[in-house]
UniProtKB/TrEMBL annotation:
RNHCP domain location: 8-95
InterPro entries: RNHCP (IPR024439)
Full protein name: RNHCP domain-containing protein
Length: 115
């Protein structure tokens, strides 16, 4: 997925100044500390977005290749985006996002024993 996001940038969520391309030599599209992002890329049209809203990480997905991808949702327009997890992304924040559904199941855990 091509990205038009410029690095360096200042994280709109935690204020971290993200200046280096990171160990993966990929352009960063999210903050390696809080994993927040900014809505500057239009997922539907593929071009730049004029929304500019904050994007919070809401989930991780694991495709067949096993490399985690991070799902962001824009707080302003609710658009979803997906980006590759960088190898120096904050592992604690990643784990917190990944276990959230397990920690808060929408049904009582006892029902699992009855299936
Ligand atoms: Zn941040
Ligand atoms: Zn947006």
């Amino acid at each position: 997925m091509p990205t038009t996001d410029p690095t360096p940038f200042v994280c709109v969520l935690c204020g971290l100044s993200v200046s280096d391309p990171g160990p993966d030599h990929q352009p960063r599209d999210h903050c390696p500390s809080c994993l927040g992002s900014r809505h500057v890329h239009d997922q539907h049209d593929g071009g730049a977005s004029d929304c500019d809203g904050r994007m919070t990480p809401i989930s991780v997905v694991v495709p067949r290749d096993g490399r985690w991808r991070l799902v962001h949702r824009c707080v302003r327009c609710d658009e979803l985006s997906e980006s590759a997890v960088a190898s120096d992304d904050n592992p604690l924040v990643l784990m917190r996002i990944a276990v959230r559904p397990l920690a808060e199941p929408p049904f009582p855990l006892e029902t699992l024993g009855e299936v």
